[in-house]
Amino acid sequence: MVVVIPRLLRGSVSAICTQAALLRSTPSALRHLAQSSVMKSKRRPDHLERTADVVRQEVVSAARVCGVASESPSVKRLRLLVADKDFSFKAGQWVDFFIPGVSVVGGFSICSSPRLLEQERMIELAVKHTNHPPALWIHNQCALGSEVAVRVGGQFFFDPQPADACRNLVLIAGGVGINPLLSILRHAADLHRERASAGRGYEMGTVRLLYSARDTGELLFKKNILDLVNEFPEKIACSLHVTKQTTQITADLRPYITEGRITEKEIRDHISKETLFYICGPPPMTDFFSKELESSRVPSEHICFEKWW
Known about the structure:
alpha/beta, Oxidoreductase NAD-binding domain-containing protein 1, NAD, FAD-bd_FR_type, Riboflavin_synthase-like_b-brl, disordered N terminus, six-stranded antiparallel sheet, 12 strands, 9 helices, oxidoreductase
């Protein structure tokens, strides 16, 4: 497979040649590279290494940063204008994130709806501050007009077709694991709007979001989530959990906040044969809830999960 360097980045070919070489690799070659890298460095595997077996699209598109904002004290939100018209994604997928001058490739879930890309050629990402080079670049150097490249991958998504059976969704998020689930939530809202306005398209069931974070300051996209709950009060609901809250909870959030972790009972209360479960968060949380659902006899094909480190 030939990788075409996007036009915006042609002046920075040397800066992304390592990433392009990885993208040309077959899955087996990428696995070998990942294993060799881990053996030599004895470090935790990075995004490309962890996802060496995951299907990716062929399109590597240039993108320009057209919005940067603080979503929380530790999370930056980016809005990217994507250049390639063939670039597309399904709600829940992530991107390989290439930065000129940074040899390490980032892996960040898209938190916007596919509809935003269709209408405005935009995608949104929300990135937590860590010492990982791509995250550091986003927090310390990224600015309006910065040029990057993106490529879609991932097998964690919700992409119903118009003739598919109506499904309910339960979305279980921990920390920045909200990102792909927000994309799915926004996509579900778009499907509700399409059905209501045009009387066609996929018939969406109910959606319940169970979202846990350290405190209300780290509950990302609070306003966006509550706006959707208020827009579709009979279709979308949320339960926001905080585990280490030290300040007073504001009046607008109080009806939706539970102090303490998401419980097994909350999950079991929403089990039905029409319900799909999507889980994204730290590995221990993801493992726990996926096993709880399996023990409650939820079919494995109704349980989708993704772990973020």
